[in-house]
Amino acid sequence: MVQTEEERKAKDKARHQTPEYKAKDKARRATPEAKAKAKNANDKYLSSEHGKAKKKARESTPEYKARKSELSKTPKYKAKKKVYQQSDQGKTKTKNYEARPEVKARRKRYAQSPEGKAKDKRYNESPKGILKKERKKIHANSPEGKAYFKAYRDDPVNKAKKHAKNISPEQKLKDKKLRDEYRQKVLSYYSKRLSKSNIPCCNCCGENFHPYFLALDHIAGKKQMDSEPELVKIGYSSKMKVNQLQKWIVDNNYPKGFQILCHNCNQAKGFYGKCPHEMK
Fold this sequence. Notes:
Blueprint: H1 5-16, H2 19-29, H3 32-47, H4 49-59, H5 62-72, H6 75-86, H7 88-98, H8 101-112, H9 114-125, H10 127-141, H11 143-154, H12 156-165, H13 169-195, E1 214-218, H14 229-233, H15 242-251, E2 258-262, H16 263-272
Antiparallel strand pairs: 1-2
Helix pairs in contact: 8-9, 9-10, 10-11, 13-15
């Protein structure tokens, strides 16, 4: 007796509902090969236009949002989220997200809005906010806290930031003129010393058309020079900005370890470890 298409489908459906078939199918789907195959197929579908549209439509439904909200409140979800946030991948993702200009601007707008101010006020007056404030006060008065804040205040980078906030336009012009003087002194000294040139020039290719084409180069590497005792002893740090470094060089009588390169040679050295002019 020949089965019809409908009868065959009904028979297959009934067979698929049996406990034996379900157990066998579950075991098959649990294998690494099946999981990898299913993941590749799912990723391929979600990356397609149809898959993206379907996912977006599903995530915008009230049912999905309500289910996601309920799931986020479960202890299992919170524990899993905490573990991910403390992992290197989670920290990197959070850092990259918070570094976006649009995220910073949005948070700043919210903090300055009436809703943001009201939320901050409610938090500061809550038991949790009061406890956090007390902990901060205790930490600030402890030896570790005092040492931390002293190091923070003495950091040249933080000093420069604080100075930049309260600077007037006239003072900015004076500071720029002073920075240009330090830069010219550094360019002239190392060009004369290493390239035997009275005009600032690149120690690699000899570029001397304009000082704007030139840059100060750390011969051994910016961070590598942190391990040179002679430089560290007189206050060198790889954290110093260019302007701070140039002033430090002049104040410390032009120490060894620096040279003048054009931007092309300097960038090439950074990318390849050696300028192409030296690879000939």
